[in-house]
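8-amino-7-oxononanoate synthase
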Amino acid sequence: MNNLFANLPTTVFEVMSSLARETGAINLGQGFPDDPGPEDVRRAAADAVLNGYNQYPSMMGIPELRSAIATHYKHWQGVDLDPNTEVMVTSGATEALAGAILGIVEPGDEVVLFEPMYDAYLPLVRLAGGVPKFVTLQPPHFRLTEEALAQAFSPKTKAVLFNNPLNPTATTFSDEDLNLLADFCRRFDAIAISDEVWEHVVFDGRQHRPILALDGLRERSVKIGSAGKIFSLTGWKVGFVCAAPHIMKVLAKSHQFLTFTTAPNLQAAVAYGLAKDDAYFEDMRKNFARSRDRFTDGLRTLGFDVIPSQGTYFVNIDIAPLDETDDVAFCRRLVMEHGVAAIPVSAFYAQGAVKNVVRFCFAKKDATLDAGLERLADAVRKAR
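Tokens:
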């Protein structure tokens, strides 16, 4: 057996979701909405599977979708992309990440990772033979610093794997942070692999700034997006990869021997969805922001110390004021004794884990959030 995978523990998401199923708990841990997603986009997929082409589509993605991606990013983020040479479709953003890492990183190359980090990053870097170099971000702001980057970057740095907005912290990086990272990438001749799947799920008037738009990074970056996050259709697994032609040529070869292609009906539906009026995307943000505010206000009313959510489906609480020092034990007790599943943020660290932050998913119906808050109120009462 491959020791890398054989020795990996069961993910905390699976552990908490399994406990939620076994106990009948309300699952506010794993990040998916309990809404079916936009009906017109789903109908476009159904129509395409009944009346469209269902054999192998182009490995790079159907032309309609690649063109729609380029047009969409030009409109929303001001990035000019050639759909024929700089855009590729993958079977989800995780496959896009795997393809980018395997296509760029060689054994012995150093890769800068920011923790807390999405759980797929580190195994994929190690699978490629990369040597991880960690930058540990500290709550509540999770900012980049010159000192931390200087310790992580070296002449051996091949790539940096970046996530903005950041899961699990639900924070977005400032222009100052992004410009600092761009400076280090230029200085050390590193390629930036940017996981931007939450680019449309940002709140309070924030505008996403893509990695490709940073000074000097257009020719040394890979931008990754996700239709699943844009349309709240997480099971569809349709990802986007955008990069300069000399990078894309290599990533296409990596993709060829991973999934090769993606369901054509889903691609057709995503192309339709990306062309929707601005109102759809604006309303989507407003609706998620409303759910965030409903749940956040409820948490604060119960006495929890809430770390503000700037994007994603998530909001975090600091459990230190509750005299809690072990987020894993807290979450296990929460699901077993009070019927609410959450995620301990320490699970997103490889070293020096912060143990006092717990993540909830607010991308749920009002009734689900309210029921969760009722059970959390019971937990607070018993704690006191």
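The mean pLDDT is 95.
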